[in-house]
Amino acid sequence: MSGYWELWDVDSGNLVADFDTESDGLALVRELIGKGWNASNLSLAFEDPDIDVDDLPPGITGDELARRAEDAGGDPVRRTA
Predict the structure, then answer these.
(1) Which residues pair with residue 54 across a beta bridge?
(2) Does pLDDT of 48 surpass 80?
(3) In the chain, N or C: fewer CB atoms in 10 Å?
(4) How many Å apart are CA 21 and CA 57, to the nearest integer?
(5) DSSP the chain
(6) Could you tell me the pTM of the whole model?
(7) Alpha-carbon distance 77 to 6, whole Å?
(8) Beta strands 14-19 and 4-9: pairing type?
(9) Can you list the domains of the chain with their CATH numbers?
(10) Which pLDDT score is estimated for 81?
């Protein structure tokens, strides 16, 4: 499989970064949340040019993304109000 992960800034519609693994993407999400980014403004999605777009899983955003990033790391994610 030639898939990869993309992290998007939802508000601007800009690609923040792409990753070979989900864990690498979640590590950056943890870092960004720690710097004050809001998880609802981020979307982590799996992409694979060999899979029809309708068959790809939906992107992860918001509380679900923050939870998965926290679960993937050792320290709790500091969420800003």
Answers:
(1) none
(2) yes
(3) C
(4) 15
(5) ---EEEEEETTTTEEEEEESSHHHHHHHHHHHHHTT--GGGEEEEEE-TTS-GGGSPPPEEHHHHHHHHHHHSSSPP----
(6) 0.83
(7) 20
(8) antiparallel
(9) 4-72 (3.30.1490)
(10) 45
